[in-house]
Write the structure tokens for this entry.
Amino acid sequence: MTSAAIQVRGLEKSYKDLQVLRGVDFDVAPGSIFALLGSNGAGKTTVVKILATLLKADAGTATVNGFDAAAQPQNVRESISLTGQFAAVDEILSGRENLVLVAKLRHVENPAQVADDLLARFSLTDAGDRKATEYSGGMRRRLDIAMSLIGDPPLVFLDEPTTGLDPQARIDVWHTVKELANRGTTVLLTTQYLDEAEHLADRIAILHEGRIIVNGTLAELKALLPPATVEYVEKQPTLEEVFLAIVGDTHTDQEERR
């Protein structure tokens, strides 16, 4: 057994002649948000698939919640939830029906109450009886994450959770991810967005050409570069700040109305 929620050592994986992972090592502390940052093709999704027992590594070990991913796959699957790059919701069903269906499939007691609680937790109560096909991208993604939490898994894997979302929807998902960690859930997040890793992660590992080239807190990563000396800087607003100033932060507005 290990005190780390996830422990990866020497992970290697190739697809025919293409070596995707070349000896990946990292640990994820319980209750933390760990960001695996890298460009497209860096191997992030391959790492997640191995940890989720959907793929076998060619070499190395991966331990999830104290269980060996290769030798104890069933124990690992009972410990995790995986949200992929595209929302896995049934658009014919309503938000509530999607949640009830998953709760029944996982043999959770009182699935209707579980669905109502999750709709409230993810600010989807008013949309609960609407078909998921009518949801915005951000609402669909929040529903997808809510579905993944049924059964209270101690670890959640989020693979590129904000790909294709508009700026406000991305911020809504960020609030959701932070709330998961605040409740004690361990989150492994893969992303290609630097600002996403900066906003969310307790620890960031940069995966490049199949290897972890740096791993640390945001402060530790910033310390790798010498600070720039400036006499005067006129701070310009970021595009995100301009956007929110114009349209408002809907998440904050929702919280204030409660």
